[in-house]
């Protein structure tokens, strides 16, 4: 009985659709400050990102167009991989596992669950999203609790593409303008 309870607890923590997901937070957490000045093709300068938590430095990450491209490329290398709850390999992948693995390939540590990611970094208006930004969704009926996450792979006026691990089709690229995703969208966040 204890083993079953422990397995249920672990599985709820790792879930993209955890029933204990936090409500949407659209402001930056007081315990986490991120300074940014990134280099991007259109309007970003070269930068170093320093993340601090509780007034102690966690890490300094040099971020460039190349880093973002490498993260996106790593995520795209999993395209077609089947969905697996808690998965982080080519044998199976869940939505937050895809991002965790992709950012990890560039030695960037991010939270493992979609609910934890939904409070990480800075809120971004959906009209201002850029490659590498995260999109959060509430896919349960009559709920605005975040249980799914994807990463922007392409952003042009009126057309945002993102990669994610769908429970029905595995790792795939979708358009934010698709009816299902448009109505499930909750927020966008920038962590790089």
From TrEMBL:
Any one Pfam family match given in the protein's UniProt record, by short name: NLPC_P60
Keywords, comma-separated and alphabetical: Hydrolase, Protease, Thiol protease
Statement: the UniProt record of this protein carries the keyword Hydrolase: yes
Biased composition (Polar residues): 43-57
Domain NlpC/P60: 65-192
Residue segments, region Disordered: 25-57
Family of this protein: Belongs to the peptidase C40 family.
PANTHER family, alphabetized: MUREIN DD-ENDOPEPTIDASE MEPH-RELATED (PTHR47053:SF1)
Protein name listed in UniProt: C40 family peptidase
Taxonomic classification: Bacteria, Pseudomonadati, Bacteroidota, Flavobacteriia, Flavobacteriales
């Amino acid at each position: 009985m204890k083993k079953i309870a422990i397995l249920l607890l672990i599985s709820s923590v790792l879930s993209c659709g955890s029933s204990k997901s936090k409500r949407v937070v659209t402001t930056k957490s007081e315990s986490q400050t991120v300074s940014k000045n990134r280099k991007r093709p259109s309007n970003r300068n070269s930068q170093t990102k320093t993340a601090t938590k509780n007034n102690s430095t966690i890490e300094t990450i040099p971020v460039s167009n190349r880093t973002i491209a490498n993260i996106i490329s790593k995520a795209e290398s999993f395209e077609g991989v089947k969905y697996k709850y808690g998965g982080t390999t080519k044998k199976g992948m869940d939505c937050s596992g895809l991002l965790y693995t992709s950012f990890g390939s560039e030695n960037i540590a991010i939270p493992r669950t979609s609910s934890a990611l939904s409070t990480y970094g800075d809120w971004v208006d959906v009209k201002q999203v850029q490659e590498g930004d995260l999109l959060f969704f509430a896919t349960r009926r009559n709920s605005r609790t975040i249980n799914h996450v994807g990463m922007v792979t392409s952003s042009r006026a009126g057309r945002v593409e993102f990669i994610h691990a769908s429970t029905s089709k595995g790792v795939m690229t979708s358009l934010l303008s698709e009816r299902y995703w448009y109505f499930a969208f909750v927020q966008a966040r920038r962590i790089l």
